Structures are given as structure tokens and as C-alpha cells.
Amino acid sequence: MTKPELIKQIATTFSEKIPFNKLIGLRIKQCEREICSVEFDNKPELVGNFVQGILHGGVIASSIDVAGGIMAAIGLMQKNPETHQQELLDKIAKLGTIDLRIDYVRPGRGSVFEATAKILRAGNKVAVVRMELHNEEGILIALGTGTYLIG
Amino acid sequence: MTKPELIKQIATTFSEKIPFNKLIGLRIKQCEREICSVEFDNKPELVGNFVQGILHGGVIASSIDVAGGIMAAIGLMQKNPETHQQELLDKIAKLGTIDLRIDYVRPGRGSVFEATAKILRAGNKVAVVRMELHNEEGILIALGTGTYLIG
Amino acid sequence: MTKPELIKQIATTFSEKIPFNKLIGLRIKQCEREICSVEFDNKPELVGNFVQGILHGGVIASSIDVAGGIMAAIGLMQKNPETHQQELLDKIAKLGTIDLRIDYVRPGRGSVFEATAKILRAGNKVAVVRMELHNEEGILIALGTGTYLIG
Amino acid sequence: MTKPELIKQIATTFSEKIPFNKLIGLRIKQCEREICSVEFDNKPELVGNFVQGILHGGVIASSIDVAGGIMAAIGLMQKNPETHQQELLDKIAKLGTIDLRIDYVRPGRGSVFEATAKILRAGNKVAVVRMELHNEEGILIALGTGTYLIG
Predict the structure, then answer these.
(1) Which positions in chain D touch A122 (Cβ < 8 Å)?
(2) When you count CB atoms within 10 A of the terminal residue's CB, does the N or C end of chain B come out lower?
(3) Under DSSP, is residue D102 helix (H, G, I), strand (E, B) or coil?
(4) Closest C-alpha to C32, from C87, C75, C2
């Protein structure tokens, strides 16, 4: 299996085999060496403020965490170019979020949302990733920074 | 309507009128002057790691944010003891999370989880709240700190 | 006094009238509408790890917080273009950091460091700013995100 | 050298051999298995707001980071009770802050300040520590949460 196929497999796992990702409706949009993104559609059950009809903060945090986690997994792959594929998948299965910061900058209004992640540092043990959530008009809704345990 | 009734109304609104809270199954457990908590049961669709069967980080973040938000709403009420009830409800409807930090300290294993919030500062504009998530055995799973815009 | 003069006055105040900024040796490098930066030289008393000779984490946090605070002050000015200058200076004197997150991505090695801040949201009450610290070779040493009370 | 002697040596190193700690005037106050604290006196060069005469946010962040780092070092010792002392000191020399969140809850007024740290999780690779800064009257000034790389 080549690297692009491995990336594709990671992407499929994240959107199809993780129950809570399915519940929200997260799907991988982009998955490159330095940038990854997930997107999801607005739907009634994701609403947090029924008066204003805006996204729940937890949905925002979830999508941002998932985008960051996928980015960290890609970072881990790139740090270990020689590692056998099964070993990589085992490492990725153990990858976890150490901590996450979310800044809610504007109300979550829109019909489609994209959480984009960019890796800023992939060390031997920890990856640091910055995330942003935009709606379909490109309005910035939230920022995130996450650290992920990768080794 | 007295203060305890108002607190009860806030609690009902949070668990019954917010679609995403219902999706997760969040219910208010405790709601006092300085401490509030929400609880929820583990269920298959909240899982984030299908190999290990543990809670999704986004579920953890969501429950912690909700506990913190309720605590901030109670804090807002206490800062404004003389304010008319409808005005208070209007303020609470506008209350929003500014930012949130989550520390994932142990895997989210268990059958019932409780997110507890304690208010550390209720200023005129911003409330600072610290949160903890435990499972039914009292194991600490995650920590949170949130700032909420209350004025 | 025109806006550029006001910006200059803010810059002077930050680097000359704030004792702890002087102690570190912080000076304003850049101060534009959407980006601001401060720089400082490495010196023995800023060291945190005497074995490795690297910057103390507190020095990194300090420079990042100062860059973010100046950026928030500029943001506040731009939100209030019609406000009288003395009123602006009064508001700026009350501006405060609500919270700050620092990610230490690489050891603080180098001879000159620059903390750059970019404003991502200037609301009526809160500004959200992202920061980065680089050394003279452009190596990224730390990231920051801060929220500042501006109203 | 016994454990208490080792703790004493760590404490001495932190307050005497780290130049920036000396510049601020940080000294170890308490150093137990689950709680550590550092204290420092207010002095003119630590001021951040010359109008209000309050502590610079960077001084607050520095003292909170140091208290957390010492706590993480003690946590590391306790995780490795059988490890030879020199090996422990080597590990401690490499210990680093991964990230830090500071919440500024009240202005830094007072004459003596104490930053207290409590360890919430010491894993194999990462320790999570919560911190608080109080003045001599017990007024809470700032909160912190830090993650430290310990393995």
C-alpha cells in the first residue's frame, strides 16, 4: 500500500468507523502533507442556541479536534517514512489529544462548515496543530490549537 | 418566579430545548450557587475510538462546555440579584463561550459521566469557570477551563 | 494628533513606560493595522535552562502577551475611529488580557527574538489575537493565542 | 541522597541556578508530593501597568509556569521511585513545558504573591498540572493549566 492509499484509508476510518463523527456527519475534505480539513452540513440536531439557530459549541470543538487529529496522524506518518504500514496504523490508533483550546470568534451560522488544520510542529512525542473553522462564505467562526501525543 | 424556580427553568431549557444536548443525552444533575454539573450515559454513538470503545473527545468537550455555560448563567444571575427575570433570561440567551481549554487526562471509559463546573470569577463582563469530567467510579477523565461573556 | 502619531505614542508607552518590558528589553518592531511585533535580544538573565542556555518560558510568554496586547490596542483604535484621542488612551489603559495560551514548540535558542501578533477578531468587548515567536533565523519557537478585554 | 534531599536540591536549582527566576525573585515555598508553590515579592520592575501599579502579565505567567514545572519534576520522581538519582536529574533537566494556559482573573495587586501547583495527572510522557496565583491576602489573581513533557 502506498502513502496516498494509506492516507485514503486513514480518511475513510475517521469518517466511517468513528460513531460520533458519523453522528455529526463529518467527512474528510482535504488531506495533504501540511494541511487537512473536514466538513459537515448544518442540521437541526447540531444546534446549540434554539433562539438564534446557531451551532452548538461542542459541535465546533468536535470538528476542530477531528481535523487536528487527522493532521497529527499525517504528521506522524511523515516523521516515520520507513515504518511498516501496520506499525503506523497501530501508532495512529493510539494517537490521542493531550489538550485543545477553542476560541469562539463568531456565531456558528451557515449551511456548510469546514474545519481546516495545519501542522506547526511534529516532534518525536508531541504534534502541535492549529485549526480554523469557516462557513461556506469563508467567515471565520472559531480557532483551535491542539497538542497530540504521537509517540 | 423565585430564584430556585428560575434556576430550574434554566436547567430545563439547557437539557430539553438545546438539540445537541439532547442528541448527547445531557441532563442537569446539580445546580447550586457555586457548583453545577451535568451527566450523561455512555452509548455507542458517542464513541470516538472504535478499537478501544472510549468516548469521543468532542463529547467530552461538549459536556464540559455545557456545564461551564450553566455555571456562568448562574453566576450572571447572582451578579444581578435585583434584575427582573425576563431581562435575566434575555441576558442568559446571549451568554456565549469566549474560549475553552480541555485537557484529556485519561481515556473516556465508563458507563455514566459527570461534568462538574465551579465558578472562580464572575466579573461584570466575563466569567471564568473550571470544569472536571469524572466517570461513575470517580476517575478523572478530563479538565476544562472556560471563559464566558456574561455582560 | 493623527492616527499614526497615536500608534507611535502607544508603541513608546509600551516599551518605555512599562517597567517589566524594559527589564526584558522589549522594543516595538512593527505596528500596523493587522499585524504588530515586538523584538528583544537574548541576554544572560533571560535564560531558563542554564545547562542548555535557552530562554525561560516566562520570557517567551511575556513577549507573546505584550505583542498581543499591543495588537488588541490597535484593534480597539480601529473599532472606534471617531473616538476622541484621550478617551481612546483611557480605554487602552484599561485593556487587559483575559487569558493566554502558549505552545512551546522548540527550545528558545537564538540571539534576537521577534513576537508577531495578528488580530483575528475585534468584537465590541473582546479581541482575539494569534501570536508567534521566531528567532533571527526564522525558526518558530512558540505559538500563542490570547483574548483581550477591549470594551 | 534520599528523596527529601533530592527535592531540596531541585528546589535550590530552580531558585538559584535559573537566571530569570532570580531576576523575578522567585523562591520555593512548599514542595510536597502533590502540591508545590513558589513565592515572590512585588517590586517596581515587575510592574506592567504603571498607572495602576499592578503586576505584568508576563510575571504572573512566569511564576505559574515555574510552579507547574517544579510540580511536574516532583511527579516525575514519584513515577520513577527506583530510578537512580543522576538519571532522575538528567530527566528533570530535559523536562519542558508543552503548553500553558493562563487566566487573569483579577488585577495583580499585593506585596507578596504565591503560585501554587497541584498535579492532576502524571502519565508516562505527559504531566498535567493546575496552578493558582494568590496575593498575601488570599485573593485569587490568576489560574493556570500546564502540560509538561516528562518522559
Answers:
(1) none
(2) N
(3) strand
(4) C75
Q: Is B70 on the interface with A (CB under 8 A)?
A: no
Q: Give residue-wise pLDDT tens across range A16-26.
A: 889 999 999 99
Contact B120 D128 (CB under 8 A): no
Residue C1 makes CB contacts below 8 A (sequence gap 6+) with: C9, C85
**Residue in A14, A17, A20 to test binding to B, most B beta-carbons within 10 Å:** A20
Mark yes or no for CB contact D98/A149 under 8 Å: no
Model confidence pLDDT, tens digit, residues D17-46: 899 999 999 999 998 888 999 999 999 999
In chain A, which residues have their Cβ closer than 8 Å to the Cβ of D146?
none
Report helix, strand or coil for B9. helix
- The 3-state secondary structure of C81-125 reads CCCCHHHHHHHHHHCEEEEEEEEECCCCCCCEEEEEEEEEEECCC
Strands B140-149 and C47-49: unpaired
> pLDDT by residue (tens digit) across B57-104?
999 999 999 999 999 999 998 888 888 888 888 888 889 999 999 999
Q: What pLDDT is recorded for position B48? A: 92
User: How many C-alpha atoms does D136 have within 13 Å on its Cβ side?
Assistant: 7
Three-state SS for C18-31 is: CHHHHHHCCEEEEE
pTM of full prediction above 0.90? yes
pLDDT of residue D2: 64
Cell numbers standing for residue A133: 473553522
**Distance (Å, whole) CA A24 – CA B130:** 27
Q: For residues A112 and A134, what is the distance between their CA atoms, to the nearest angstrom? A: 9
Tell me which chain C residue has its CA closest to the CA of residue A144: C145
pLDDT value at residue A1: 53
Shortest distance between the Cα of B143 and any Cα of chain D, in A, equals 9
**Would you state the cell numbers that stand for residue D85, as one nine-digit string?**
538519582
Chains that touch A (3 or more CB pairs under 8 A): B, C, D
Q: What sign does the CA torsion over A135, B63, A16, A10 have?
A: positive
What three-state secondary structure class fits D149? Answer: strand
Q: Which helix (H) or strand (E) holds D37?
A: strand D35-41
Residue matched to cell numbers 518558530: C140
Q: How confident is the model at residue C53 (pLDDT cuts 50, 70, 90)?
A: confident
Q: What pLDDT is stored for residue B2 in this prediction?
A: 64
Main-chain dihedrals φ then ψ at residue B94, nearest 5 degrees = -95, -10
pLDDT higher than threshold 90 for residue A131: yes
Q: d(Cα D104, Cα D119) in Å, to the nearest integer?
A: 20
What is the C-alpha to C-alpha distance for residues D63 and D102, in angstroms, rounded to an integer? 11
Q: Does D106 touch chain C (CB under 8 A)?
A: no
Check CB contact under 8 Å for C20 and D49. no
ipTM: 0.95
Closest by Cα among B35, B32, B48 to B119: B35
Q: Which domains, ranges and CATH numbers included, belong to chain A?
A: 3-149 (3.10.129.10)
DSSP class per residue in A70-132: HHHHHHHHHH-TTS-HHHHHHHHHH-EEEEEEEEE-S---SSEEEEEEEEEEE-SSEEEEEEE
Alpha-carbon distance values, C6 to B10, B143, C30 (Å): 46, 42, 14
Mean pLDDT of chain A: 92
Q: Which of B5-9, B64-68, D60-64, D76-80 has the lowest mean pLDDT?
A: B5-9
